[in-house]
Write a structure and sequence with these properties.
single chain; 104 residues; mainly alpha; 2 domains; 4 helices; rod-shaped; transmembrane helix
Amino acid sequence: MSALEIFERVPRFLRSFYFLAGVAFMAWMFLFDANDFVKQYDMYAKWQELQTDKQYYLREIDKVKSDRAELLSSPELLEKFAREKYIMKRPGEDVFLLVPAEKK
């Protein structure tokens, strides 16, 4: 069987210039283009990750806002927060930090 006979056995619409050009275009877009499927998948995965991060940061912002409102409403809580978080002290006061021993 020669190549011409094989070519003749292929249906006519598959030998059409427009069909071949379309297949070549699709192959180019799916495999070789700057925005091929692999890159689109990577971008989608990154978008999903950023959406997750966004939700996390929105929750953290709400938590910080509630803590801020609570601290600004009570001077006693503000003093407690400053002493615990930033190790602040009153003049003439000594501060002792207790650090847990490391396990070996």
